[in-house]
From TrEMBL:
Amino acid composition bias (Polar residues), ranges on this chain: 99-111
Spans annotated as Disordered: 99-123
GO biological process, one term: proteasome regulatory particle assembly
Name of protein: 26S proteasome non-ATPase regulatory subunit 9-like
Length: 218
């Protein structure tokens, strides 16, 4: 639910987009469960060494699930872009009404705090970032959680700029949080957002499906 203290078509539109995003994510999970039940991923061969369809899996269901996952991942990517644009529009209307900073809620029900930009282009609190999100694989836990390439990490679980030493700290948090939500705070363009990621095994290696790079001090 989007927690702006205002009503209007922009907010209603974002609410509908979030509901659709939740539906897409649920269907992706369902299709991934088909692959898991057959003990295959997105890239495993469906034929045996002699070139015949494997008899240890349901080839038809696996092919259908893979096709649906690809289509759904594309739909998810598109709707996340629409949600981001919609949130920016709602936030702009909110600020223009003189309401100041506001809280929103993401699809997991956790608070997404969106802070307005200051005149120097940074967030009003201007917290320090310590790492940058690199490539994010489509359909990965990072992607589904809302992380985007070039997001600057301000908080990752218990880690922030004051206690950050190296990327190993983040890897340790991920490894010990499989299936558990991790609260992440990022700066994206001129806004500060809170997102929630849930590390888990998925179709590709890694538990998040994104690259996190230490930020080089300028």
């Amino acid at each position: 639910m989007v927690g702006y203290n205002m009503n209007g078509p922009a907010r209603d539109h974002v609410m509908k987009l979030i509901q659709e995003k939740d539906r897409i994510e649920s269907e992706i999970r369902d299709e991934n469960s088909v692959l898991a039940a057959n003990n295959v991923g997105m890239e495993d061969s469906l034929v045996d060494m002699e070139g015949f369809p494997r008899n240890d899996i349901d080839v038809y269901k696996v092919r259908h699930a893979r096709h649906r996952i690809i289509c759904l991942q594309n739909d998810h990517k598109n709707i996340m872009k629409q949600i981001e644009r919609g949130l920016c529009e709602v936030h702009s209307q909110f600020v223009s009404n003189g309401e100041g900073a506001s809280n929103s809620r993401n699809h997991n029900g956790h608070t997404n705090h969106v802070e307005g930009p200051s005149i120097n282009g940074n967030s009003m609190e201007n917290p320090n970032s310590f790492a940058i999100v690199g490539f994010v694989q489509e359909g990965s836990p990072a992607d589904l959680g809302g992380l985007c390439e070039n997001d600057k990490l301000l908080q990752f679980g218990s880690i922030n700029s004051s206690n950050f030493v190296d990327i190993t700290q983040l890897h340790n948090i991920v490894t010990h949080s499989v299936g558990q939500p991790i609260q992440v705070r990022v700066r994206r363009d001129r806004h500060v957002l809170n997102v929630t990621v849930v590390p888990r095994p998925w179709a590709h290696p890694g538990l998040l499906g994104c690259q996190i790079i230490r930020q080089i001090a300028s």
